[in-house]
Design goal:
- The protein has 313 residues and is of the alpha/beta class.
- The protein has one domain: Aldolase class I (TIM Barrel), CATH 3.20.20.70.
- It has an eight-stranded parallel β-barrel, surrounded by eight helices.
- The longest helix is centred in the C-terminal third of the chain and has 21 residues.
- The protein is globular.
- The termini are far apart.
Length: 313
């Protein structure tokens, strides 16, 4: 079920900083024409931490309404508190999201032991009306959820996978090894039983472009990639070429897109991603403060990167 390439959608804001849901839906409708497997509403690249709970519900609904029927929609629902995460997950389910992506709680990181994190995810999974995925992004949280703890959480019948954005190929491999052979889901919520029957195991998804292609060799199922918002066809082609056994061709395309992937993540972050979307005919717009739009020199550099990636002439 959770195979292929997914885009973590940026959240557009209007001139006064209000949600621009019509522009979000316009972006999704354009992306529907690509080979993307689906979308993540309110991930790290969506400025989820800058969106209120009420706005979150609106974003979930807007994405679900505009996504094509064959696109799988995740809702990013992780909050600092377990109960708040459960409530946000229910909002995502009510809006039509098919699964929830749950970020590791990190504010009291000194107390976030393996046992505490396991209890958090299992409690959310117990009470979630939709399947959940673990979201590991240590660059943002300061917490790296290791393969041994992931394997313990993966035993829960309502936990269907992990998006690991650590960028560590060895960790991805160990996570695949540790979670392989998860038994078929049982006692899952009635509302998700049909979904579970299609995917009885546990899928490992890369949230880092650079590590996705090599990780396909040992069973990673795909990627949730920021660069898929601006190079969706290219990201899908890399995945498809690998599946067809055309590994060298996949590698060449991977190398061409790699600088762009870096530019819209670690180099320029959300402002860079939004600027690239604006340049390529989508709506990116300005991020919410304290994030600031790219400056003139940064935009010129991004323009060069886009040109070298073959995205513009």
């Amino acid at each position: 079920m959770l195979t292929g390439i997914f885009s973590p959608l940026p959240t557009p804001f209007g001139a006064e900083g209000a949600l621009a849901l019509d522009l979000l839906q316009s972006n999704v409708i354009k992306l529907n024409a690509t080979g993307l497997s689906g979308y993540l509403a309110l991930g790290s690249n969506s400025e989820a931490v800058h969106v209120t709970p009420d706005e979150s519900s609106q974003v979930f609904k807007a994405v679900c309404q505009s996504a094509a029927p064959d696109k799988f929609v995740f809702g990013g629902t992780g909050q600092f508190a377990t109960q708040a995460t459960i409530e946000m997950t229910r909002c995502a389910a009510d809006a039509g999201c098919k699964a929830a992506l749950v970020l590791t709680p990190f504010y009291y990181k000194g107390s976030m032991t393996g046992a505490v994190l396991r209890k958090h995810f299992e409690t959310v999974a117990d009470q979630s009306p939709i399947p959940i995925m673990i979201y590991n992004v240590p660059a943002n949280t300061g917490i790296n959820l290791g393969p041994s703890i992931v394997a313990e959480i993966a035993r829960h019948p309502n936990v269907i996978g992990i998006k690991d954005s650590a960028g560590d190929v060895n960790q991805l491999a160990e996570t695949v090894r540790a979670t392989r052979g998860k038994p078929p889901s049982r006692n899952i919520h009635a509302s998700t039983a049909s979904t579970a029957s299609r995917s009885p195991g546990f899928d490992v998804i890369s949230g880092h472009f650079g590590s996705m292609l090599p990780s396909l060799t040992f069973g990673v199922a795909g990627g949730i990639l920021a660069v898929a918002n601006v190079a969706p066809n290219e990201c899908v082609e890399i995945f498809n070429l690998y599946q067809q056994g055309k590994v060298a061709e996949a590698g060449e395309l991977h190398l061409r897109i790699l600088p762009l992937a870096r530019a819209v993540t670690s180099q320029y972050g959300v402002p860079g991603l939004k600027a690239a979307m604006d340049r390529l005919g989508y709506f990116g717009g300005a991020p919410r403060p304290p994030l600031q739009p790219l400056g003139i020199e940064q935009r010129a550099d991004l323009e060069k990167i886009l040109r070298e990636a073959g995205m513009i002439n």
